[in-house]
Amino acid sequence: MEQTLGRQAASDAVSDQGWRYLLGALRTSVRVGSLVQATEVAARVVAACGSDADGHLRADIRPERVVLTLQSSDRAALTARDIDLAHRISAAMRNVGLRTEPDIGTGAPRSVQLVEIALDALDIAAVRPFWKAVLGYTDEAGADGPKDPIVDPVGQGPAMWFQQMDEPRPDRNRIHLDICVPHDEAPRRIEAALTAGGRLVSASHAPAFWVLADIEGNEACVTTWQGRDDS
To answer: CATH number of the domain that 149 lies in?
Structure first.
């Protein structure tokens, strides 16, 4: 149960249950009608996870939905236990007439997603402590090197990662957003961005990521788990 899973294996194991793989985690949403119902859903989800809840589950409770994230927090990765918990949670929701779903093609404001901030830097080890301090961030579990990403310890803000620059680029923005979406949401999200006045800068690394820009050249990447080195 503690074996770390690759992207393809994790996605295949839960996609039909309404979960999506995003940045080493599983995420889904349960629609509810009130904050009271949301807290009841959260309680059922915790009960379904049992003693594994604290080490694997995060729940964002809102009046209209409960967003659930699964990850083995001690290693910031997915294991077979997370897959098992996803199936148990989905079954618990079906038992009370609710669904775990990624909000793709449902009329929801947006799908489940995760956002990262990417900072281009010449000396990552030198700038990383500043951003860690000013954001109140910490090291991600198992990633405390001088060039590793930093994360919000309470999970409210986007993670920040650092991209190595080979030479200064004063004529180009050096901070951009990475919007990690479900692999089956990416085409719709890209189309929406282009319709809203954006332009496609590069698709050379698709389906891992597409580089988009607004009318003034400010960039954002739509990313998925697909098309990357490991399975």
So the answer is: 3.10.180.10
